[in-house]
Amino acid sequence: MSGHSKWSTIKRKKGAADAKRGKLFTKIIKEIMVAARFGGGDINANPRLRTAVLAAKAENMPKDNIERAIKKGTGELEGVHYEDLAYEGYGPGGVAMILEVLTDNKNRTVADVRHVFSKHNGNLGETGCVSWMFEKKGLIVIDKGGVDEDRLIEVALDAGALDVKDAGKEFEVTVPPGSFDDVKKTLEEAGFKFNTAEVTMVPQSTVHLTGKEAEQMLKLMEGLEDSDDVQKVYANFDITDEEMERLSA
Question: Does residue 1 register a pLDDT over 50?
């Protein structure tokens, strides 16, 4: 399992998503604003905005908040100007990492990010140092409980998915980015329930972590996602389910 989806699983078990809902709202609002600024306020004509609005609705964000963020993005209401950036670096054990950032102060953000990396045995790298190790794909994660694997494979592949992978306690369905909405809709209509469903950066290979390095990596992920400016973190690490249970206890 890729580090990003593994981390999502750990957060669900720890209840971290609920505990940090206010921070999550702030990040989603930023994304809505930037998506609207670059692609306009029509969700039907702006895929990035549509994805951001769906994420907001999934977190039960009030409709007024969503509409206000769109208007700030399009300039109908006054709002902060955010810069869309990406940082790359390495975590414990040589894990490759990509950060998607939205910031109104680049100098503050890069200093904060560098500090978090250093604190948890990682280091911020140069642009392009690890991006070649990742590929943009849709990723749909489905819990194994009660799922007919053969039916999932048939429905997913017929809908346009690239692959269905057994990832321990979950199935990972990878999808071309352009087909993501169609495959997701087909799987939903077929009755499959998702743990996560998003267009993400999928690593071409993973680094297996155990013990102290695994613990440091999870603390690094948590520290970066705790930043108001860091929207998403992608990493090519893998931790066994047994190790994950120990660390998330």
Answer: no
